[in-house]
# Entry
Amino acid sequence: MINNKVHIKLKNNWFLISLFTLFLISISNNFYQIKLFDKYEGSKKNPNKHLMINGDISDFWYEANLIDKEIQQGKNYLETGGEYRRPYLPSRTFYLFSYFFEKNLMTDSGKVFIGTEKVLILIFQSLFFYSVLFALYKSILKKIPRLNSQIIILFLACEPTIFQYHSSFWSESIFFSLQLIILIFIFKNHYSISNLLLFGLILGIFYLQRSVSIFYILIVFTYFIIFIREKILRNLFLIFTGFMIVLAFIGFHNYKRAGVFYVTSTQAKDGFYVYLAPEILAKKHNINSKLALKNLQNKKVSWINENKLNIDKEIDRLRVYNYQQKEAFKIILENPLISFKVIANKTLHFFVIDPVTHVYYFHRWNTDNGDFYKSEMQKKWISSRIIYSIFIYLFCFMGVLSIYKKKEYRHILIYIFLSIIYFTAVQSWYGGTRYFAPILIYLSFLFSYGVTFLIKNCKKYFI
# Structure
């Protein structure tokens, strides 16, 4: 009979080998994606579209190239970059790659350079994620049973919706890693002053990677207030101080660059106006959403002219973004029933997990065939995605039942639900399944307890 300690050691070795194998598969996929898709598609509709660097990614890439050029011209870093339109960190990550490896991001003709060196960015993402994943494992072992901990980590290491982003230039992979770091802080038993300040800084960096996480600090505060009451005012103050250091830096950077202090990305201010308000008005007036958006834009132009704004000036554009935000909220509040129906429909779509779109839409999809989201290929995947989603949610439901019965784990359950509610509230209204991916980080805990719940109940009947 194997000694219990030896048995645990063997299980742990199996787990570590599995985790390392998945890391190597991720690295292999990094090279695979670069080999196949580091090129221009040459389609008739968009001959200058790079298969991997397009959409928001190309905006980050171009800004990184701009920063590189401006610094080479002798500008101070705080004077570089353009309008704070999109999340701050992704373009700076690309710039650091250019700086450290002395590689221009763009050719003289203004195209993304073609070269295997780009794989280093993807390797960094994989290495960062799997290193933090291992650190999270060591952290949660102190509070969660070994088997549950291992299932959580292996789920996060191989779940395809998460896995795919380590081999792309989207911002998700680093965002996931930052989520894991925040979880490490949440699972700490004791907090020193330096730990709390660092926690606040991490929450600030979390926001820099994805703008929607700017208010996530409120979830952390709520958790601390409910479960970590000792020295609560000190704890919250130190976390907030660390967070505000990051926001102050962003505001100061904008002030030095454009002469105006602001800390929220302008894209975050017009999302409702561009993607939600037109659909509400379209339902209200029985017109298509494109016409509704056109009407909104015409009204905006009139407002700009009435206020004699010059949109070439960033300070005036900020006023326009504020106008759009207020106008969108006004439309939503004046049409509560229609707004609820539109958002509910988008939210249902949001919760259908999508582990395939990244490959087909962002890398392989030929734009000559139209929009992937309206294509026959997209429709073919819906049934499989629904089945996959039901499979994940079924285990998560069993996990909720399992955790709820154990008082010592209810703080985990509450933190998970607070996080899921947060990311649903700030992203589901858009309807895009890509934005659901961060929620899988929290579902991994429920999934783990669901699996062990099933195992234990099967043992009762079959053993």
